[in-house]
Amino acid sequence: MADTFEQELLREQSEFTKDKEIQRILTSFKLDAYSILDLQPGCSADDIKKVYRKKSLLIHPDKTKNERAPEAFSMLKKAEQELSDSEHRQRLDDVFVTARKSLIGQRGWDLDDVRLSGKEFLKDWREKVKEVLIEDEFVRRMERKRQMEEEGRANQHEEEQAELFKQKAQEKKAWEESRDKRVNSWRTYVESSGKKKKKKQKVLV
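Structure (tokenized):
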């Protein structure tokens, strides 16, 4: 009886741990892969793989009843892929560097200030990273929108040119067809007139 109770307690504790981790992932800033994996910049590629494997096994949709597990698992997988991409990771690392320098400059601290390793600064650092990422994402979206508008205008111009070419081709075809009709009509008229003259001349003779 005691064993059954202990097993049930462990199962509930396990589910609680899973739910807590799922909630943490879902509330993490989506543009910050480090935050989703609960890692700090500077970690090794092995660290990323180990943490991802551990967390993915913990919250795998097949191993928990939590309905939001698939969403959290998807975010976790995407974060691991982003940090495994050297170019994407470098861009994210650059954002962390920019945010850190900005905070240090705002506060007038030295690079060896002991407060830089404190929890308060690390929290503020994450918030600053969030601000920079949002700004960068806004700029990227505006640039993408501008490019799409330019492509749209280019496509519209091409469509207009194609329509104009089609219209001219139709007009040319119609003119050629009407010309053939006019030529045939004139030929018929000439032939008809010739026959009438011949008939009249025969009567006079």
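The chain has two domains: 1-84, 86-205. The chain has a mean pLDDT of 86.
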